Records
---
Amino acid sequence: MAATPSKMIPLGTKAPDFTLPDTISGKALSLRDVKSKKTTVIMFICNHCPYVKHVNHELVRVANDYLLKGVSFIAISSNDVAQYPDDAPEKMKDVAKQLGYPFPYLFDESQEVARAYDAACTPDIYVFDKNLKLAYRGQLDDSRPGSDVPVTGKDVRAALESLLSGKPVSLDQKPSIGCNIKWKQ
């Protein structure tokens, strides 16, 4: 389990548009379809990564807490399923149902969306403001598999609270750490 940090792209970056299949509903969804008028969270995750498994329940809790406040959440898996069959769309749907994902779980088969976002690891989390400008990127919180640090979602929650209250998001942002995106050869 190699620890790969997120790339920390520049704040203010505009969210690249996309249209991808949602493994839960079977529909093609675009960023326009799922973005919020307040704040939009885009998370690059996958099924097999121990870092994602470690935070999955908190991702669901954070989403359930903030969906009620008008925040939109989108999960995307971009891994090469030929090499990592546990990340295939049918299995994505199974995991989403098992964990009760309250957000779409999109499959980026071409990996073009991960490249457009410069995603490097799972989980890699991006929080965009109402104008789809990047306000936060990085870790969910300080917890990692095997650490004694509880999973709280504090970093993403703080960013969301700032955006929803019209305050600036702290510039003290730490990269996420996770498994690298499994790029096609």
Note: The mean pLDDT is 97.
---
Amino acid sequence: MSLEFEHVPVLAKEAITMLSWRQGGLYVDATVGGGGHARLLLEAVGPEAKLVAIDQDATAIAAARDGLQDEAHRVTFIHSNFVHLREVLTERNLVPIDGIIFDLGVSSYQLDEIERGFSYRHDAPLDMRMDQTLTTTARDLVSTLSEEELADIIFSYGEERWAKRIASFIVAEREVNPISTTGELVAIIKAAIPAGARRGGPHPARRTFQALRIAVNRELEYLEWALDDAVELLRPRGRIAVISFHSLEDRIVKQTFTRFAAGCQCPSDLPVCVCGIRPKVKLLTRRPIVPKPAEIAQNPRARSAKLRVAQKVLRDEGDEY
């Protein structure tokens, strides 16, 4: 297994500066990847700090172990999806935590490792599993789902206007020939989207590939669950930072943070609060932080990144810090 897991950490300075509020604390990188954010976080929070490094990709965990071997004495490596965050932390008595970072989406390494089937630019097995222990692949989805189910996935997760047409072309093709590779799927998508619609904008297969990847890995529903657990696992004043790369992810993060930041839900005409609901977090980024032009020039994959950060409030003092 190659350990050349290269992934340039996006919005690294901004994320680590906002996350590292307490020296010597316990922090979590829920998507450690190659360890870029993890190393910067360890440097920022001091030699007494501990880090939990989690990733669902076994290759990423191996690469992080290799890259952080000089800090191994203060890092706990866990091969798991962040949807199991509460379970893996509590069973190891690694709670409460002082901060947690999520760097969402597919990594540069995963895109560039052709045989993983994430990229529409190379012909490869139609896989798209971030965790290779999963049993369902993208090939399984395009081979077994109904036309309506495929169209719903492609439209909902890819925001693809030609979703119904692409789904119908997939179903028609699989009745004649099995769809086994990314190249075969790209050809179907190109045939389904009218030529005029393919002349401008991104690659015609980008949205469909994004949708299938999200569906295979259950990324959005797992994200909702993980964010809920992460906030509960934070100690008062603990911080959560999330870097997202498309509007669906960012919407979930924004809505979750807004929900936790909301206070009293009583009707406005009541003189006093009777619901007892108090904010759980304070928003530290009213608007998302985005990469500067210099970072985008150096790393084009950063262009769609958005960073949102929240801080857990003190239970006895509302949102006063």
Note: Confidence is low (pLDDT under 50) at residues 317-321.
---
Amino acid sequence: MFSEKESDAEAYLQRLEVPIRELRYVSLLSLGIKSVPTLAILDRNGVVTDLWVGKLSPLEEKGLMSKLSLEDTMSPDEWSVTEANLERKLTNKEQLVLLDIRDRAAYAINHRDGARNIPLDELPVRAQNELPLDHTIVVYGNEPSEADFAYSILDSQGFAPILVLVQNATPTKRSNN
């Protein structure tokens, strides 16, 4: 965060070698920025067109990089796993926890073999007590955005590594028990 002086902000950006065409000082609060880190994209009239608050999840980061026409710096292999790669990891007996974040009813009807169920709305409270910190957590749910949100929750609680399962239309192993 900059001081109230435009000259301090300009000097800081020049030290970072950020090219400056024009510098305007406004209070962060006037832009709707109440916490940091926050990333805001403004149009040429100074109107906030997009706003991200906090550490970005993998899908949010991917969307941002695409919006800015930049190459994504995070490889999908760092945060996601395909069905085939998951099967390989399970066959190799890697220390994994399959985490189904769907509600209890959906889990009871149909779930992956060996999966634990912690519904997404309960994850912030239950994860610390029920998931091991020394295992890879593989998250899956109904929607990619829900799994991405679960990734953010687990990441903020110190779990690592975390992978989001990229599901096929018909998953290979299911259980009804």
Note: Strands lie at 38-42, 48-53, 80-82, 96-100, 116-117, 136-140, 162-166.
---
Amino acid sequence: MDLRFPFDHPEIAAVLTRLHKAADADNRKLPGRAPAYFWAKITGRLNEPTTRRRLFADLYSAVTPARGALLYVLARAVQAKRVVEFGSSFGISTIYLAAAVRDNVSAAATDDVSVVGSEMEPAKAEQARKNIDAAGLGDLVTILQGDAMETLREVAGPIDFAFLDGRKELYLPVLKLLESKLRAGAMIVADNIDSFRSEVAPFLEYVQTPRNRYASMTAGVNDGMEISIFERGERC
């Protein structure tokens, strides 16, 4: 796999190349699980913990290289120093975000920066930590294992950048959980907008309504990413 990365960090690029290859191989599992996935969705069992674990617990569910590069560039653009991620999986997107944070600050200023990831599955959280350490970014990143509605509750602000890539129906609850800690001009990026339209509909309605203090647009990257800027102040 010949990948081009938006940064010059050979050690990070080597880890990401390995992980993207593994994620590509992982995609071969998806067709065989399609019948079970659609049956669970039709019967209303898709959001049951046991069903989701059976279908997704061992899958990468990773950002593509294009989406990872976009995350890096967007986090650089807003000079993000504090990042929160909902849904870290095996840590691919976390690595892109942590690379951006490190490149946004000088070595002397790294005490005041952080990337906080969240992951429900214990095995994924543990492997994410190992992958992040292998990329040399472990000093910047904390992966919180468990229900994000609980683990992210005590995350400190101000938050400069939030990436939403966990359970789609939780995009809006997680955003509202973090909202009081967002700085003015904070960026929120939500993944898989096109593939999960019904699940993300409440989130999209919220961020696309100007009185809720967001400027938002859908970018046509892979299966869609919603990019929103938070504008502090009272609702109109």
Note: The chain has nine helices and seven strands.
